[in-house]
Amino acid sequence: MNAILNLASRLLPGLGRHDDVYAFNGGVHPPEHKAESNTRPIAKLNTPKILVLPLRQHVGHLPKVLVKVGDRVLKGQLLAEAEGTVSAAIHAPTSGTVAAIDEQVIPHPSGLPDTCITLSCDGLDEWTPLQSINWRLSDKKTLVDSLRLSGIVGLGGATFPSHIKLRSNTQAPIHTLIINAAECEPYITCDDMLMRERADEIVAGIEIVKHLLGVETCLIGIEDNKPAAGEAMKASCQKGQALVKVVPTLYPSGDARRLIHLLLDLEIPSDKRSTDLGVQVFNVATVLAIHRYFAFGEPSISRIVTVTGNVASPQNFEVLFGTPLADLIAAAGGAQDDTSHFIMGGPMMGFDLPSSQVPITKAANCIIAAKPDLFPAPPPAMPCIRCSRCAEACPVNLQPQELYWFAKSDNFEKARDYKLFDCIECGCCSYVCPSTIPLVQYYRYAKSEIIAADKAKEAADLARERNDFRLARIEREKLERAQKHAERSAANKTEASAQADTAKTTPSATPTDSAVSDKQAAIAAAIARAKAQKLANGSATAEPAVSKPAASKADTQATPADKQALITAAIERAKAAKLAAAQAGLAPKNTENISPSVQAQIKQTDAIREKARKLSESDTSDPDKG
Amino acid sequence: MNRSPYISNAPTVSTIMFKVLLALVPGIAAYAYVYGAGIVVSLVLATSTALITEAALLKLRQRPIQPYLMDLSAVVTAWLLALSLPALAPWWVVVVGTFFAIVIAKQLYGGLGYNPFNPAMVGYAVLLISFPLIMTKWPAPLSLVAQPLSWSEQLSFIFQQTLPASMTVDAISSATPLDYLKTQLMLNKNVPSISQAPIFGHFGGQGQEIVTTAYLLGGLYLLQQRIISWHLPTAFLLALSGMAGAFYLMDPSHYANPAFHIVSGASLLCAFFIITDPVSGPTTPKGKLYFAAGVGVLTYLIRVYGGYPDGVAFSVLIMNMCVPLIDALTQPRVFGHEK
Q1: In CATH, which superfamily holds the domain spanning A24-45+129-370?
Q2: Percentage of residues in chain A with pLDDT exceeding 90?
Q3: What does DSSP assign to residue B204?
Q4: Least confident piece of the model among A254-263, A479-488, B51-60, B190-199
């Protein structure tokens, strides 16, 4: 029956439509498990004794730490400021003292420690003076610059600094703002609860973002498994600030490109961003944070986190960043005894947390207490039977079975050809695989290998260019040395001839003197010969001199064209050198590798030896003379 | 460390194969009803040979035996081969065919998931080439046999090739309608008069309609269970009936109508069970259409112009060879990319 419906929906594209939204290919519908955590209101978690604030809580550069150990800081005070374009600030979530700035375990898939600011809380919760900003009266650029100080990042999990997404772009003006409220991952309900409880504040945030982007159209995409949230948002949008669009519950509708496709029937090309086509996407929690920053001056110091899974009372909490996971778990009634570990994020794309002591960060939308019953270890993987269920489930229309084959056989070039890098790692393929192959892990592996290989290749190219440049430089210096030597020799020759003149004009010159001057004349002759040789070679020096700027350019720019020019120059140089050697004619063979100065020395020595030989001959031919 | 997704919702390979076996049951029942229970003996023989050879080869290849036997893929191969063979084929024919299917066509290529050719069809092709006479001697439908063989007589025929004294092989066997049609056409008879022969039923062979309907039921079940995609059977049946229809329209006296081709031979078994083997078939939706259409066209051409009564096995094997090419040429457009 499904197959027939499937066929029918393919033949009649309008059939499967849902509330005038469009559809994307593939997707899966796992059990939602949202009811566990969305029946209780959002609770505020008490301030813990210690907060651990990782510097790396966002995409981009690490912020610059402004405090030192022992400093007393107030709630909302800037602890680290954004450095570089893509970066986000970090603020003190409560008042207290900076206890340490060192490496601690952070919630990251790598499980590696990273720099954190540890705050010892004083329990006073004393605010730094806050200043609200009247965004309607301020210049947009000033507002966006000010947002850079807010520390607000995408709270849907992407943690991209928000101020960057709001910078004006004259090349591609934004025409549509999309608010991502799909929350398609199972278990997670933080956005759902936020919309139910704070819809007015979200809409206030939407107005600010619309103003900053200069857009009129705003669509809110909500999956149809959150009717209460949808109603709340509709009620708050009475004045037409935004249009609530209900999309079918189908993972991964919350992926930005999927949501844009669902709402606008717009396919963002693989090599472009949505902003290139005039669409900007913000998460609901992010726009709420933006509202609170402008309305009250509150920086980003907390977020809503869903705590669910194997805990006594699953619930959403408003949690200060840096709160140890254990405190949060305790607030949810504690984890059951058979809890094996904790997962951050949803079951489709989340990751295992290295310990229960890791801090809650800006990316932490959901914590799931896992137990073997809940997430049983998959059975050993069987061979791929090419059933192509993965291809049917892939929202990007990839061929996961082919990518798996290429990744497994380390055939990375093929994997790239089959658009491995378009994979969003949503996990739909693994979810439907009858052979329980950990497909996503294979793709992550292949991606990291390709990236590493690309980096290595880049480094090797750079090294090769550097070496080429070095060789060119050595050649150039050699020639310069030879040039200098030749000049010096020429100067010596002038001097020698001057001396010879002096000798001629001085009748009192002794035979010894004349012998010396003879020798000098021979030397001068040798030098002259060397100079002639050098001149012959000199015609060849023109080429390397030309290639010099090309070589230095290649070093800085490293474009293929420059590299080509460098290679051509090297070939020309070699040809010229051979030509020069041939032109020299009488020059001894195999002297290309001997520098002209050395050649000159050899000739000089030869000349002396010749002279000595002649002298000795004349000596032996006239024994009486001695 | 990171092993998301943590959840999964997929039938295991064993479940898929089990459902395929289940879908074959109506076909087997119909087959036994029309041609006699001898088919059950072939099925048992093929199944045991498949499991034993599979286990032996897994052991030789130092692979875990239990999970691979439990995937039931060897049983599916065995059943498909047995159903392609004449019901009363000698026991050693079944064993040799299954041996080739499992050992040569499957395990020597790396086992499940690695065989480029449909193992059952390799087994069938080997038998057809090696023992053409046995392979074309089909039991006559029971309705046409004056005195059907008893259960024990069938067994002794399968294992010892002996018949009760009063009977001859010709009395219990007949050419298939496809074969009969081909030979009669060579004698310059026309289709309408040939199809008056007793072995013809309403559309195809006597009783073939029942078997075909049973396979169709099984196939619809597999479609409903989303074990197979609609592309393969649809394209195959359209191509086969399209070819047959075109030729039939050109000369109805010389070419059988499309319904005859759909009902005859292994058409429906092929449409729902043979070309739907995922391992040796293409994976892209478009590729599936081309592959199945290719099998349909070739099947028709071999039936009409070839030297063998049915063309399914060779068509499938030929199209199996084209699968890498088909897959490469039919890659769907990736989201966000131009074609």
Answers
A1: NADH-ubiquinone oxidoreductase 51kDa subunit (3.40.50.11540)
A2: 66
A3: S
A4: B190-199
Instruction: Determine contact: B223 vs chain A, CB below 8 A.
Output: yes
A372–chain B Cβ distance below 8 A for any pair = no
Structural element, H or E, at residue A79: strand A78-81
What does the pLDDT read at residue A324?
95
What digits encode the pLDDT tens for the residues A568-625? 767 767 666 666 655 554 444 454 555 666 666 667 777 777 776 666 655 544 444 4
Per CB-CB distance under 8 Å, the chain B contacts of A395 are: 335
Per DSSP (E only), the strands in A169-326 are: 176-181, 217-223, 243-247, 279-283, 302-309, 315-320
Nearest CA to A302 out of A271, A279, A328, A338 is that of A328
Residues of chain A neighbouring B223 (CB-CB closer than 8 A)? 3-4
Q: Which residues in chain B have Cβ-Cβ distances shorter than 8 Å to A253? A: none
CB A390 within 8 A of CB A433: yes
Residue of A nearest to B63 (CA): A382
Give the whole-angstrom CA distance, residue A86 versus residue B162.
87
CB of A370 within 8 Å of a chain B CB? The answer is yes
Q: Where are the domains of chain A?
A: 24-45+129-370, 472-625
State phi, psi for A387 to the nearest 5 degrees: -75, -15
Q: Is A373 touching B (CB cutoff 8 A)?
A: no
- Confidence class of residue B151 from pLDDT cuts 50, 70 and 90? confident
Say yes or no: B279 contacts chain A, CB-CB below 8 A: yes
Residue spans of the domains in chain B: they are: 9-172, 175-330
Give the span between the Cα atoms of A396 and A423, in whole angstroms.
7
Tokens at residue B207, please?
Answer: 């009783």
Give A269's contacts in chain B (Cβ within 8 Å).
336-338
Closest-CA residue of chain A to B71: A382
Measuring CA to CA, how many Å separate A208 from each of A156, A194, A340, B250, B280?
19, 18, 43, 73, 57
Cα–Cα distance for residue pair B114/A344, rounded to 1 Å: 37
SS3 B134: helix
Cβ atoms of residues B199 and B140 within 8 Å: yes
State how far the Cα of A101 lies from the Cα of A99, in Å rounded to an integer: 7
Q: Which two tokens stand for residue A296?
A: 């009250």
CB contact under 8 A, B114 and A349: no
Q: What is the CA radius of gyration of chain A?
A: 38
Angstroms from A176 CA to nearest CA on chain B: 19
Whether the CB-CB separation of A124 and A95 falls below 8 Å is answered with: yes
Mean pLDDT for all residues in chain B: 89
Chain B contact set for A26 (CB, 8 A): none
